[in-house]
Amino acid sequence: MKKVKKATKAEIEAIKAALMERYSEAVTELDYRNAYELVIAVALSAQCTDKRVNLITPALFEKYPDPAALACADVNDVKAIINSCSFFNNKAVNIIKMAQRVMEVYGGEIPMNEKDLVTLAGVGQKTAHVVMIEYTGANLMAVDTHVFRVAHRLGLSDDETALKTEETLVKKFKTDLHALHQGMVLFGRYICTAKNPKCDTECFLRDYCKSTEGFKAR
Questions:
Q1: Model-level pTM?
Q2: Catalytic residue among 126, 158, 159, 172
Q3: Count of other CB atoms within 10 angstroms of residue 143
Q4: In the predicted model, is pLDDT for residue 3 greater than 80?
Q5: Is position 126 annotated as part of the catalytic site?
Q6: C-alpha to C-alpha distance for 49 and 40, rounded to whole angstroms
Q7: What is the number of H-type helices and E-type strands within the chain?
Q8: Average confidence (pLDDT) over 194-208
Q9: Which one from 6, 9, 116, 144 is the annotated catalytic residue?
Q10: What are the backbone angles phi and psi of residue 216, rounded to the nearest 5°?
């Protein structure tokens, strides 16, 4: 991975301030009504767009409105409902197993701490962090493809993996991580896009940009 010039301490503070000014009220674009729906929506969104997930979940949540219903679901029926989602076979198996564990171990309630969340099928650290950021406003960072790209283009990180990038962003930003995560996702999704970023028309962080390469985590 090509190394880019690192952002200075002053630039990091300016980037943080600009993101906070623009995105302090930002929330996920995934549609959900409770913690159960949020966990499923976030799990389905891996390698899949939020728009696609929002098209899939209404039928899924109507048929399986809570962990108790999903825990008893037929996997082929769930696959049929979510089959326009990437990796739908694995995701169908995982969300059913997730619901079963929630019923067996957590009394039907989605746990809201990382240690317990990551024991659920299909929920890794990134998914757990995204859920907690959105649902509780936890001071956590999660790095998806958008955050990874933005962090590297702005010289905030030169790490090769998403987890290492997350650690670096936590050290550099320290506070307001939930809002900064949401802001970097939206900034990367709509302005600092992988192809044809809107550098000349919409970018409010252009002065801090170190590269327009399309960075991807290993």
A1: 0.93
A2: 126
A3: 28
A4: no
A5: yes
A6: 14
A7: 11, 0
A8: 96
A9: 144
A10: -135, 140
